[in-house]
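Annex B, item 7. Sequence and structure tokens for protein A, then protein B.
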Amino acid sequence: MGMTHQNRVLTKMREQYSHLAPTLQLAAKYVIDHPADFGIDPIRTTAEKIGVSTYSLVRLSKELGFPGFEEFRDPFRRALRATSKPIISSNWLDELSAQGAAGSTLANSAENSMSIIKQSLRQMTPEISEQFVTTLTNARTVYVTATSTSYAMAYYFQHIARLILPNVQFIPRDMANPIVDMNFANEDDVLLALTVHPYSQITVNACKFARQRGMKLLIITDSQLPLSELEPDAVLTAEMESPYVFACYLGVMAILESLLHLLVIAGGDQAAANIKSYRHLKAKVDGTSPF
């Protein structure tokens, strides 16, 4: 029941988000994006991370119909206990942490990496994943777009996905604006966009254009709220927290790998044959032995 109750609270926050005061929106966004941290941290720590007062968190609790902060946080604590099985034994992390400054940094990085992957895949529910796969496989053309660091992730996804779905295109093709490549798109097509904070305006504009054309819109991002006005058909959200100054893309990569796995399964024998054919052709062209 822990996860169910937590999901109800998250749904309620998303529904009421646009009606909240700016400070409460800031707090609500943090809770939605970091449910695990919210379930662990005391109120003062949470307030410091968000940059608001503890009173704001109490106000948010009451706006959502809870008597106080503890009642508001309780569903998140219960959900955390329900999913707190360790991914891997922590013994090696303890040993690594004891090996000087470099070992301590590596242990911290490893622990953060595992946490990011776990939290990202927890949010990749079967319902949303199936919606992604169904939408992609039924499309006439799938356009994949992104900018900056997300560009590399999107290119990787398209490179593998085209073996399963030959109608997958990466845009922009010639370093122009992706909108140009969707000039002939219509309601039979899909745009899959990758964008994380600070949310590329080029990608956002491409999403808006896709909506104007009646295309279906799928988004992989780090928070559902800032892009909610685009009214995407489905969203997959990745955890991006990092112990260093740049965001960590492991969560995005884990989501993309899982999505590719689901597409391969959905593609059945034909997908397997396509991948096998590609491997043999690549081996022949590159002059290496097929594997």
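Protein B:
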Amino acid sequence: MASASLRTQGQGAARVVAPASGGWESLGLLLATLAVIAALAGYLLLRPEHPGPPEPLSWQVRSFDGLGKVDQAIHGALLPAGEEIIWNNNDTGGWVTMEQAQKMLLPPFYRDTFWKANGQVHWELILPGTHQAHTLPDGTAPGSDASANSVAKATLGQGAAVYYGSGGQMPGQSAYLLVIGHAHAGVMWANQATIWVHRDANAPYPHIVKPESLVGEGWRQVIPYDGASEVERVKGKQP
């Protein structure tokens, strides 16, 4: 061993030979071990205790901790309602009207106990490409007039279909937009729905249903999280 003393015998006298390293190996190993321990301790002390999903942008709000109790209930109902509306549009090419929503018992539009307990929101369907409510003052749907030309009818398949909820009566309740993405004429496949809220329950229907315009008028997009995301938000990433 290099670190061990060597004894040599010569002419009846013993001589001790010191190791060439002078014992620096042991000291270096000790220092390296201490450095690793210090680095590990620093990492454990400085890392976030509960790292979670990224913080929302200024024009976004998280569904779990950014909405009040009533808004969470409405948002929770709008998520499956949006999927139902999209599938219905894929099958029929049309949009679920408020009258159809009553027959389908589709919350949050269906006027049942849930609707009463969560502010009795007034809902309207704004058809794509029209920015008009789904019924005219005489009770007919836009484009149903026999005199409407084919071009005008075709434009009903362009743009976004919007379900607009306002007039909620619960304290702190928001106004709501369920925006169904662009649908192409002749194909009618709608994109994923997005949900927006406005702090004023009586906020008017926006002039333009585009994210930039909605943000400018005080609307905020709701960012939904699934169960796994919420566990991560509360407890951090699990090993």
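Comment on protein B: The first strand starts at residue 6 and ends at 10.
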